[in-house]
Automatic annotation (TrEMBL):
GO terms for cellular component: endosome membrane; Golgi membrane. PANTHER family: TRANSMEMBRANE 9 SUPERFAMILY MEMBER 10, TRANSMEMBRANE 9 SUPERFAMILY PROTEIN. The lineage of its organism: Eukaryota, Viridiplantae, Streptophyta, Embryophyta, Tracheophyta. This is Transmembrane 9 superfamily member. It comes from the Eukaryota. It is found in: Endosome membrane; Golgi apparatus membrane. The chain crosses the membrane at residues 275-299, 341-367, 373-392, 413-434, 446-469, 490-523, 529-557, 569-588, 600-633. Residues 1-24 form the signal peptide. It is a multi-pass membrane protein. InterPro entries: EMP70.
Length: 639
């Protein structure tokens, strides 16, 4: 039973997470902007994205209209790593001033530009824009619900189609944008706050009267004077070499009841929250099943075993001992490759600390979706500072294993995981560079990452290792024999490989439904902001990893096999193998990636994620068994 303090803390956390934000309280960097009538509104452009290639490109890599000078917006570390490239645009509005058929510019398409546009239309690239920190969305009517919409990030560059009576497929560009800006008005102060930014894209072959006179040209296809509005793409603009494309836009302003504080709600609205609850219930059933097994072992079996062992008096009875007490002289014998176990446990602790703090901050609402890249920046910085815990936990364990070279362990902890991840990341980044994508991390950012690693993380790992090694050695509850005991032949189901693979199924089963939504968010560019569900699943994952490791560790000790150290780590850690297999299944069933480079990127990033998941779940399982073995062997009398 959890202590009352835990219950109170959890209840307080839930209340804070569910309570509406206090009036007048805004997080830094996300305070509202008030606009008066006719105030200028500057639309910014972001990267071009595609779910078919996963390679982002800069907006101005395509022949779109440009402002007089292109100005890059300052970006945080997370935004750069995501491939965001935020720049100004020639689209300028005035608050609450509707505009109709405004000409942006006319572009003559050359051979190179036509090829680029056709490639991007073929790969289904979308244009992303931002107004007042809100992303541009295309509202799409839901089939299953009347009057309900879901929102697509950005609009497609164009579309493929055929003229009636023709078999040839042509490429058409979306050159007319019909914007809708929704605002919430404060009647008392007569100021407005933007609460939605939507668009409907059209492909229109514009025609005009007389000579071309830039923005003063009078179009015949749409005319603000004659109230001629574009409502369809009946005569579309084809992408052809040496042909002109005229870019135009409308903007309409609509008053909305949505308040500024709730403007992200429609973006983040999860229509399938029943599935999330199903996921939680499914995971809780697994937890209840495992908790029942652990309770049975702890209460019935162990209680009976310990009572029986403590009543053994004669030498003859002692010789007839069976089960886990028989291996008491070997159970705390240091394992082979104990140095590497210390390193991986330290890495897992670093991950656990990072995820726990990130989740708590996200649940409390500190990682606002309006702060693009904030989540990734927070996770990176937390990872760096959690190096202190990594060094501390690895050296404490190393000292338990009678190690003396704490600097060696600190060095390995600081470089093993980050080094291998950096090598994969560097290789993937080189591939992205080769594709001339904006997703390639610039040299300066790469240098900043290396600086964070060598300048902060590595020293903190060494400080943590020093502090951990200065602590007194953890005492074992029983003495270890000088001569190792022979392990009897094991049943087939106690084979290490078999039991390790079986152990990973339940932790993976507890998270795989939520994993589907996370993968969809990352690779299909959908909003994911249900950290409440994710935090519950994370807690369930911790309990599941701990309980499956304890159950299998107990069965192993009962079979007189005392080599539990590595087995406890690998039992729950093997769930990472199932995660990677599921990612492979997701790739072939849900994604439409066709390019080789994009496939390499997907599997490279999923390999990093699986590696991290292995360190996290393995460490949870290890510490659960570590505490379990100390508990049971300190409860029996050993002569």
């Amino acid at each position: 039973m959890a202590p009352p303090a835990w219950a109170l803390a959890l209840a307080a956390l839930c209340l804070v997470a569910l309570a509406p934000p206090a009036a007048g309280f805004y997080l830094p960097g996300v305070a509202p902007n008030d606009f008066e009538k006719k105030d200028p509104l500057q639309v910014k452009v972001n990267k071009l994205t595609s779910i078919k290639t996963q390679l982002p490109y800069s907006y101005y890599s395509l022949p779109f209209c440009k402002p007089d000078t292109i100005v890059d917006s300052a970006e945080n570390l997370g935004e750069v790593l995501r491939g965001d490239r935020i720049e100004n645009s020639p689209y300028t509005f005035e608050m609450r001033e509707p505009q109709m058929c405004q000409i942006v510019c006319k572009i003559t398409v050359g051979e190179k530009e036509a090829k680029l546009l056709k490639e991007k239309i073929e790969d289904e690239y979308r244009v992303n824009m931002i107004l007042d920190n809100l992303p541009l969305v295309v509202p799409i009517q839901r089939v299953d619900q009347e009057g309900a919409y879901f929102y697509q990030h950005g609009f497609h560059v164009g579309a493929k189609g055929k003229y009636s009576g023709s078999k040839d497929e042509k490429y058409f560009i979306h050159n007319h944008l019909s914007f809708t800006v929704k605002y919430h008005r404060d009647e008392q102060r007569d100021v407005s706050r933007i609460v939605a930014f939507e668009v409907k894209p059209y492909s229109v072959k514009h025609e005009y009267e007389g000579q071309w006179n830039d923005k003063k040209t009078r179009l015949t296809t749409c005319d603000p004077h004659a109230q001629r509005v574009i409502t369809s793409s009946d005569s579309p603009q084809e992408v052809e070499v040496d042909k002109d494309i005229i870019f135009t836009y409308d903007v309409d302003f609509k008053e909305s009841d949505i308040k500024w504080a709730s403007r992200w709600d429609s973006y983040l609205l999860m229509t399938d929250d029943q599935i999330h609850w199903f996921s939680i219930v499914n995971s809780l059933m697994i937890v209840l099943f495992l908790s029942g097994m652990v309770a049975m072992i702890m209460l019935r079996t162990l209680y009976r075993d310990i009572s029986k062992y403590n009543q053994l008096e004669t030498q003859e009875e002692a010789q007839e001992e069976t089960g886990w007490k028989l291996v008491h002289g070997d159970v705390f014998r240091p394992p082979s490759n104990s140095d590497w176990l210390c390193v991986y446990v330290g890495t897992g602790v670093q991950f656990f600390g990072m995820l726990l703090v990130t989740m708590v901050f996200a649940v409390l609402g500190f990682l606002s979706p309006s702060n693009r890249g904030g989540l990734m920046t927070a996770m990176l910085l937390l990872w760096v500072f959690m190096g202190l815990l990594a060094g501390y936990s690895s050296s404490r364990l190393y000292k338990l294993f009678k190690g003396s070279e704490w600097k060696n362990i600190a060095l390995r902890t600081a470089f093993t995981f980050p080094g291998s991840v950096f090598a994969i990341f560097f290789f993937l980044n080189a591939l992205i560079w080769g594709q001339k994508s904006s997703g390639a991390v610039p040299f300066t950012t790469m240098f900043a990452l290396v600086l964070l690693w060598f300048g902060i993380s590595v020293p903190l790992v060494f400080v943590g290792s020093f502090l951990g090694f200065k602590k007194p050695t953890i005492e074992d509850p029983v003495k270890t024999n000088k001569i190792p005991r022979q392990i009897p032949e094991q049943a087939w189901y106690m084979n290490p490989i078999f039991s390790i693979l079986i152990g990973g199924i339940l932790p993976f089963g507890a998270v795989f439904i939520e994993l589907f939504f996370i993968l969809t968010s990352i690779w299909l560019h959908q909003f994911y902001y249900i950290f409440g569900f994710l935090f519950l699943v994370f807690l369930i994952l911790i309990v599941t990893c701990a309980e499956i490791s304890i159950v299998l560790c107990y069965f192993q000790l009962c079979s007189e096999d005392y080599l539990w150290w590595w087995r406890s780590y690998l039992t729950s850690g093997s769930s990472a193998l199932y995660l990677f297999l599921y990612a492979t299944f997701y790739f072939f069933t849900k994604l439409e990636i066709t390019k080789f480079v994009s496939a390499v990127l997907y599997f490279g990033y999923m390999l990093i994620a699986s590696y991290a998941f292995f360190a996290l779940t393995g460490t949870i399982g290890f510490y659960a068994c570590f505490l379990f073995t100390r508990l049971i062997y300190s409860s029996v009398k050993i002569e």
